[in-house]
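Lab manual, section 2.4: Encoding a predicted structure.

Procedure: take the sequence of the chain (503 residues), apply the prediction step described in section 2.3, and record the output as structure tokens. A sample record is shown.
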Amino acid sequence: MMKGLTWFQRLGLALWATTSLMTWANEPELPWLERRFSNPGYVENPFDLVADVQFTHAVSGKQFRYPLFYVGNDTWAFRFRSREAGRWHYKVESDDADLSGQHGELEVTSAQANQRGDVVAIGSQWGFQNGEVFPPQYAMVAGPQYYLSRPDRLQADVQRLLIEHGFNGFQMPVFCRWFDINQPSCSDAQGSNPDLATFDVLDEVLDAVTRQGGVVHFWMYGDNQRKENPGFLESEGGLNKVADKRLQRYILARLGPVPGWTMGYGYDLNEWSTRESLDDWFKTLSQYRDHYVHLLGARPGKHRWEQLLPQGDYASYEQHRPDYPVYVRTLKTVPGKPAFSEDRFRIREGYTLDDKDYGPDEVRRGLYRSTMAGGVANIWGYLMGEYAEANSAIVSSGDFPNREEINRWSRFFKTRFKVGMTACPGRVGAGVACLQTPERELILVYAEDSERVDLSRIDLGSYTLDAWKTPGQQDRVIQLTGQAKRKIVQLPERSDWMIVLSR
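Recorded output:
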């Protein structure tokens, strides 16, 4: 009887409780729990039913409330995640008599409570609730319609872009697919209720990406001129009106307890949104963030430093091929917030390096420059040949010709990007980027097109020096034995280098 259902739709269908304790509705390794309730007597729009769950921790007495959401077939559900292990009691509160009073217990294991949690701001770095930090470098992927009933495509993109390339997340534009996953043209999208098929796919994408340690950055909407936004936004009341608010509440209820995602509002926002509409959107999706955190932002106009959404969780910018000094300014312009250079940096046919696009060498250098500035987030895409339509989220990014170099960036910073790292004070040397931990036990130096690196402003006597060549197909690590007392470090050849100073 479960034929044709997605994996997430099959969760917990063995028993729908109407009272007392319910069985698990998901596999134990997931960080969140789900419970479902049958309610066949409800005859209004099921997405407008209001029902909250009161959660109470059995030992500490801690309490909070969170909404239910509709999953189809006269069934409502809630999801629950906590960083506090132990037994929790729940009770549904609603004006709907069939749902109100439903109650039971949940058991949060230590393994679930101690997972990395949501993406959060750790000072000006991107990190997780468990204290880890990471420098976000996201690969462009298709919208949810691309993965509908095609788990092979999702598996392939995770393998290619996260494992083989080493990107640490997906950037997914959802556009009008929130409401109609099957329409090829957003201007033809039908309906003003959330499309359950879209959310089934998003569940699967988040599960697949986070299992690999990655993050998903959604673009909620796109650009009106390119007809990427649902037509009802104009024909049925506009932004933040009935249908849009219905969607926002559904995102909050269904995806809020699921960790591992952030969201930008879209792009070219000055053409179709207002400060008031952005403020309203942010206020709605920021509810309940005492329990579940998902960083939200809005990209301003081209090369503008002021923020379109000043209260946003990260500072966002549209920049074309930023160099290292621009990345440093990007991180410092809004102190205490992570930064996102939120244009899409692409290799495309018909564009040259005099335009906004990149070549393979520029992609590699962009990864290092943005990370060495302190961890500015970027979006990358290879849009040549059959992958040209990745710009419209029809397909995902193709394989970069220098994917081994991208993976080397990932491997290098996996254990070397530390909490509290900041750019070294003062000028270390001409053409040199420098990043250090607070106690200076680890200093990273990056130099492009160099064979001699000026480190005269650093007392090298107490450090061990190693050098990593960033271009090429093979890892090349050079121990700089005997150079710790020199002011000018000599490298084996002219190239782009990372120098590691450790003690």
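Check your result against the sample. Residues 1-28 have pLDDT under 50 and may be disordered.
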